[in-house]
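Trying the structure run again after the queue cleared.
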Amino acid sequence: MTRFRNHSSPALIGMTVLVALTLSGCAGLPGTTASSGSDAQFQPSWDQDRSLAVEYAAGVGDWWTPPLQGSVICGVADGVALLMEPRPDSGGAVPEAHDRSAVVGIRMADNEELWRIDEAACTSDESVGDAVYVAIGPYRGDSVIERVVIATGERTPKSTALDRLELSGVITELEDVTLLTAYQGPGSRTILALDGTIRWQLTELGWLSRCEYLDGGPIAAPGDARLGCNVDEGYALVDTASGEVVLGPNPLRGDTIVTWARDGYLVYERGRPTAQGEWTVTAEQFDLEGNALDTVTYAPMAATSPARHGMLLPLDEVAAAESVTGISPTGDALLRLSARGRELALSGTKVDVSGYLLAVSSGGEVLLFQSSTALTFIDAQGTTLSELQSKDSDVRVVNGYLVKRAHQLGASVLLPAPPS
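Done. Tokens:
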């Protein structure tokens, strides 16, 4: 099931149906035989604009940098970057989400400005495919949220007026409604459901870390979807149609963890590995109404990370993915852990690339790894396609493109190699 993106937190990219694991944690893991996961087929939901562009298979080009230093790259599509420029009086300082400045569309091939919106704000957390959700209007006053097409600047109103609006991430974009989070002045984040007006908003959850869109699973009925939200060291379930809090907030004590699934969630104690490196937990499973189901014992290596990277599995597949650390958008196992370390699931080829799996292309043709010093692209056979020296940790995929987010050193977009 494909969907548009969640993101309230900076973690990776994009679709990222993946798990960030290093080789140091591989020894002695249960269930990691040579054939484990090689023929597995999963049913993930994933963030469509987070999969890596397949064009990187032909090589990488240059890092494109915005004309004005300090610009924020909010989205990229069709050779155009949507930027929030620094305020004219800021001395080139990177603007914040509560600032208002010009939002512009820049053609990356020649830096030509294609369109401009004044007194606006955005971040890459509001990117959804070929568009970005933008706050337009004064921060103190009547700001509205509009969906802006990156290549053309075409604008679609999505909300009525809001005071002190600061966007903080689109959760998901559905056919008739968009769910996102925003601040309205200092304090806790608000969840907004937008359909041209504000269909509903929820502010009662307290301190909100992030929310995942739980679609109900492969055979979901209309109305099954929920938001699974991490709040105040606890969690809550929210009805996506009404904004009603279905469950919670429930506290999480000590080392207790909640892991979201398409059709429910799991709760377990973090635990610690044995002297042999084995690490299993017994997790309680719950449906989207908070009803207790079965318990399951497994090694939660893959289960703790997919939701953080935009991919969720059904409950009955979470334990089966315990040794699988990379899944394609179509549900094919790409990368797994074995006694030898990391292997490509289909061929069994050992992967000797340092760092963790950051992203994959939609068909699994390209896998991207990030270490503290490099970005490495390999193909499905394990052949290195490109390797770039990079010490920048704040790298993510935005609509297929690899983007370094705005910071003191400046934002940039890694372009695929030009056609030969």
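The chain has one domain: 2-416. Worth checking whether this holds up in the mutant runs.
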